[in-house]
Amino acid sequence: MNILNDWIKINTIIFEKLCYNDRSYHSLCILRKGEIMKRKVVLAAAFGLTMSALSAGSVSAYTAGTYTGTAAGRNGDVTVEVTFTEDAIESINVTEHAETDGIGTNAVDQIPGAIVDAQSLGVEAVAGATVTSDAIVNAVADCVQQAGGDVEALKNVEVAEAVPTEEAALDTDLVIVGGGGAGMTAAIKAAEYGLDVVLVEKMSFMGGAISISGGNQVVSGSQMQKDLGVTDDSAESMVEDFMANGAGLNVPELINLYAENVGETSDWLQSIGVTFNLEGGLHSLAEYSHDRELAYEGSGAGAAENMRNLVAAAGTNVLLNTRATELISDGNGGVAGVIANDGTTVYTINADAVLLATGGYGYNKDLLQGDLANALYYGPVSSTGDGLLMATADGINADTRLLEYGKRYPNGIEVSEGIAKSTINGNLKIWNMASVLVNAEGERVVNEKASNRTILETELEQTNQELFLVMDQETFDVWAENVGYDVSEYLEANGSTTPVFGHGETIEAAAEAAGVNAEALAATIEKFNSYVEAGEDPDFGRAAEYLQKSFGDGEYYIVEQKPRFATTMGGLVIDTDLQVINTDGNVITGLYAAGEVVGGVMGDDSPSGANNGWAVTSGNLAAQSIAAFLGSAEEVDQAA
Fold first, then answer.
1. pLDDT exceeding 70 applies to what percent of the chain?
2. What does the alpha-carbon distance between residue 414 and residue 420 come to, in Å, rounded to a whole number?
3. pTM of the model
4. Which strand (E) or helix (H) includes residue 188?
């Protein structure tokens, strides 16, 4: 037997004897065969580190001291200070970062300790904060290298997966699965009815899709909308607009329910502390016949922070890093709670009602259908369809609808295979400047100020289902300043890799770099400049206010535009009480759904601000229905 096997055998025997002979080690020692094998892998990796140090002629893994490292995070650089002894990473301190509160900061709180505890750079990223997690690991790796350590060996020190060793039972009135906009709203409202609530969230933070959204919400029919000057909007007008945008596939009773209640919900949210940017006013959008979209103060992250504070004030029992895995059947076609797992403890949560607010399924390729399977994804990694999978499991048998549809936008860039970033924040700032959308043949094919749906439908008809955004230097400078992320790496590639950011001193040079027909593009730009001079676009009707500047001298820039999506339109079938319906058309007693997990509200597409509006409205209505089901609503009404 070679030295490695001897070394593993000795350490495994020691490990097993500790587990069998000392009960204080029980919670750390799960002696199933698979777990022993995992630990053998860890031992082998540790052995490799030791032997590599010995073979180098030194027993020291590091040059002791404190080192500083930096790596790019989501919102900027992340800087760490790492202190080493001769044979260990002693401490890690994140000294500078600009990561999002409640999301990236969770990685800042957790990753350094995980690296120190495991003495490994192979630690698992914090759910929902992968970019920040990777930044911390990369910055620490830089310090390891400075200290003379072996970065690759540390990356290969496998960290054993946590295996639950405890069980716990909880009893509550309501268990909410998912802590996004719908789940948090429902928890806040349920507390007003005096319900005991447990909220289970698989991520390390509450916030969901609303926390990373653009932060806009439909407020149709609200007092806020009226105070901002729109007094003639109506539920009927909103339904008509949504039906047109959703190709008439909207479920009539659900879109009516939404339109009739979003105004009251919006005003209620404002009254309890969710702040809206009233100074910014309502937004005018092609999808809407009335101005009915309003931004949250602090965007989506600001709204999520407001809601987290309200959930805490409501006294909700929140279980973070806890994944619901199964609905508990009551044996009579209904549900009686959920099974959940936080990696250490398996919870049996017995509840009189269960609300699924688990979001969409965009990050689960196995659930994507039709054209949606080919679109780039840019939504939260938490959107894995957990609620759908639990509700449609044998014994629960929930029905679904419209799973083939998602909210696709025409303005994505492919930053890695199948994954997008949005360019919309930059695009919106430059349509009154020198900017056009063209196809690979170099031709304009759409009014750049048309609705997203119109641009998307046009884009899907083009070569490779893509368009290209063309800008001059002045326009690009404004675009790059507002797009929301650093594009220098993409510019350096100059069209050689995706995302395509072609540029050059002439239109022809930029076109060649981007793979666009150069001769046709030059003619298109010349024609556009003549339209600016005339103040009229006879080809596509771009309004005069967006024909303000001709293309100037180079450099010129061409950026790919591909379909992207974050939000799925399909989901569970529900009634107007937000109760989930099974495949036989019957109510599943005790089971409710709200937010993106519900199918059919939007049809095949959702207009801007609609998804946040539906999340909070359906969460509010679900809590009211559950309170009525449990009798609490009557008690509150009688007390009033």
1. 89
2. 5
3. 0.74
4. helix 181-192
